[in-house]
Amino acid sequence: MTVHNREIASAFARIADLLEIRGDNPFRVRAYREAARVLEDMTEPVERMVKDGTDLTGIKGIGKDLAEKINAFVETGRLDYLEKLEAEIPASLLELMKIPDLGPKRVAVIYKELGVETVEELRAAIEAGRISSLKGFGEKSEQKIFQALSDTPNKKIHRMLLADVEASASAYQKYMKEQPGVKHVGLAGSYRRGKETVGDLDILVACRDGFEETVMASFVRFEEVERVLSRGPTKSAVFLRSALRVDLRIVEKSSYGAAMHYFTGSKAHNIAIRKLAVRKKYKINEYGVFEGRKKIAGETEAGLYEAMGLRYIEPELRENLGEIEAAKENRLPRLIGISDIRGDLHMHTTRTDGRNSLEEMAAAAKELGYEYIAVTEHSRKVAMAGGLDETRLRKYMEVIDAENEKVDGITILKGIEVDILRGGDLDLPDSVLRDLDIVVGSIHYQQRFPVRQQTDRIIRAMDNPHLQILGHPTGRLLNRREPMDIDLERIIEAARERGVVLELNAQPDRLDLPHNYCKLAAEMGVPIVVSTDAHSTENLLLMKNGITEARRGWLTRRDVINTRPLAEMLGTLRRR
Fold first, then answer.
1. Where are the domains of the chain?
2. Where is 505: in which H helix or E strand?
3. pLDDT in tens, 335-378
4. How far apart are CA 412 and CA 398, in angstroms?
């Protein structure tokens, strides 16, 4: 049985949440949470390390107790300790923790004092005025929680982050390619289009005649399958241990391209293509393109688009947002690729809340072939992360200068991720900001202002001539927190007027700036920077997630500043 790093990380994060609700030792809670982050960031499969007999205590943040639990998870696929906690503490309390303004300590108080376990019970307690009477709450807190409840769907979220699906999707595709008789295996649906979240996974297989039953039998035997939903001669469906639904369809080789197009979607794109086919007096479906009864295309997607009189349209663009018209007029963009990236302009080290040193981050970036990086620690407002005040920042600037003297082949830029305060002021004085190479301004607190107040706050921050990049502009956390109420078009226009660059943050739960606003920004002439916001050397590999979102936003290398040589990139950041 294959066990992915993310599965173990998820189990440890769940233990941390349950321990925190129970009121356990905070150091114990922090140990599980840190281990979860370490495991999630690791690129080497922990399962392989266990099978090779590697001593896991050599991994930073993994002690003897946690190493034993990892070994047990790899061998059995379960954790007795987690099951014990889940039997003791209602799982519904973890759903309550997803509500803004309700951390584990507050959830524990509500549960212990009022017996509230579910969202519905919490809503009823607020309506009865019982929350405001609890110690540490009050009427203002009660109203904030009520507002957050209004923004939180009652139904459980079923869509998974694209990055969380990737390991299983790649493993399943590789497994199916190895089966007898298989000619082609493709992943379709929203996963192939690079959508930020995935509801289910579609796999298409073309195989030799007579191997259909063998392929289906292999599909349902994949080691991550937990439950078989259906099994037929050409279509089957399963649920994986991660709760991801996977559908398999066997198609004819001559229809493989048409089927890939049909099942990749989006629905709006497919409808528009069908309407175009009707105007040409063709019929198009998952089996091919037909002129009368004659199939004129369908084996490849490129052939299907050619039959429609179109250039090939990349999957990331298939949302019926102008891509068909652009393909007709031969003006589809040449989309950015990971090989275009020359540097990363947002990352953290052990100086604040990162998990690797400056030297380690620089070495890892150099290994990726980068020409430059910017180290952008948190400013003092983010106290929990050990944010830097002016004195500590200046000392670190000296450390970076010294490191640049030692390291060859890469330039380390001195930067900061400075907090945008309530009124739009920046968290550090101009006297130090003016001496930095890179200044990223971000909002981490007070994200629920009315739209005009929040928009004015951001624009006022951009009025500061030292702010060069607006970090994760909407503040969204996918599946956890809605974007801030802001007038993003007004902000993009303000960025254009002031010469501010907008960040596309590549963290899998952010992917912020969203793709549709990336497209708008590029059309308005506002440059984008794709950055990882890395907190470890492994996080530097998240750049690919940002590139996928950038491609969905029609971005080319010309639109993204960190595709440029160092001098040209820094020239772009000079404020007008």
1. 5-151, 160-251, 256-328, 338-572
2. strand 501-505
3. 999 999 999 999 999 999 998 999 999 999 999 999 999 999 99
4. 12
